[in-house]
Write a structure and sequence with these properties.
Layout lengths: L5 E8 L2 E9 L3 E5 L10 H7 L4 E5 L16 H14 L5 E6 L1 H12 L4 E7 L4 H7 L9 H6 L5 H8 L1 H11 L11 H9 L2 H10 L3 H12 L7 E5 L2 H5 L3 H6 L5 E5 L6 H4 L1 H12 L2
Parallel strand pairs: 3-4, 3-5, 5-6, 6-7, 7-8
Antiparallel strand pairs: 1-2, 2-4
Helix pairs in contact: 1-14, 2-3, 7-8
């Protein structure tokens, strides 16, 4: 648990209740976790931000201690969960930051609910359309899990369930630059992921299907993120041959783009850096 935070179970949709840690006082900030993690990834950043803000850290639909329905993993539905969660806790407007999968949910929330999202931060992702566009040739092997979990129901779930700790542990080990940053939560992440294989796969499968259609419709309509936006990424663009800032700027005219030397799990590996970037965003 995040120390000094209280825990709530909040209904957000039909038959879906989210687990959320809430702490602090002031303007609301919602923090969304990535894969293969839970809300605990924000434990350091949340404790810092709680000095000046009400900080809300949910487990996404399908993850951690939140409900895991069989369907409903479009980022549009998951974003609606977040808006409903904040509203149920008394916040019609809030800043929103997401990491990895949570960043894709945050991105969709910013497009679908601009009146609710005052500021937006996305950590270490590209928008879904751009993600698929930059993966090609042998370099796409770095994202092999995206292709595995895009397969029809049955195959990926069966393969992952054969040895879930090896599967999920691979990402915790391969994507981190400072393994000590995860020592206190690694077992918790493995346990939570092991118990959520079908819903985690469903989340990823949606990003190869319905999420593509939603993002393509927004691109065709010229829809953009109208709030201040901060993106923090590893320098994947240099490694894979694309301009990450330019791709993000096409969606977010008010973009501040930063690269970090921390690993993928930057909120745990470099919490002071990430907290600083978020405070800069909130001041805009």
């Amino acid at each position: 648990m995040i120390e000094n935070f209280t825990y709530h179970r909040v209904p957000v949709a039909d038959d879906v209740t989210l687990n959320a840690a809430v702490g602090g006082d002031g303007p609301a900030v919602v923090l969304l976790h990535g894969f293969p993690q839970t809300h605990l990834m924000w434990r350091h950043v949340a404790a810092d931000l709680a000095a000046t803000h009400t900080v809300i850290c949910p487990d996404l639909r399908g993850y951690g201690d939140s409900d895991k329905p069989a369907t409903g993993y479009s980022k549009r539905e998951m974003a609606a969960d977040v808006v409903a969660l904040a509203r149920s806790l008394g916040h019609e407007r809030f800043a929103l930051a997401g990491h990895d999968r949570g960043a894709l949910v945050a991105f969709r929330a910013g497009l679908d609910h601009p009146a609710a999202v005052t500021h937006l931060a996305c950590l270490d992702v590209l928008p879904t359309l751009d993600m698929w566009d930059v993966l090609h040739g042998a370099s796409a092997a770095v994202a092999w899990h995206l292709y595995l979990m895009a397969q029809p129901p049955g195959l990926p779930e069966t393969l992952i369930a054969a040895d879930p700790d090896t599967f999920f542990g691979h990402f915790l080990d391969a994507w981190v630059r400072d393994p000590a940053a995860l020592h206190d939560v690694r077992d918790a992440y493995l346990t939570a992921s092991r118990q959520a294989i079908p819903s985690i796969v469903a989340d990823y499968r949606a990003s190869a299907g319905v999420d593509v259609h939603h993002d393509a419709a927004d691109r065709a309509a010229g829809n953009r993120l109208t709030m201040p936006v901060t993106v923090v990424q590893q320098d994947w663009g240099a490694a894979l041959g694309y301009d990450a800032a330019a791709l993000w700027r096409a969606w977010a005219p008010g973009l501040h783009h930063h690269t970090t030397t921390a690993g993928h799990f930057m909120a745990e590996e470099a919490p002071a850096e990430i907290t600083g970037r978020l405070r800069e965003l909130l001041a805009r």
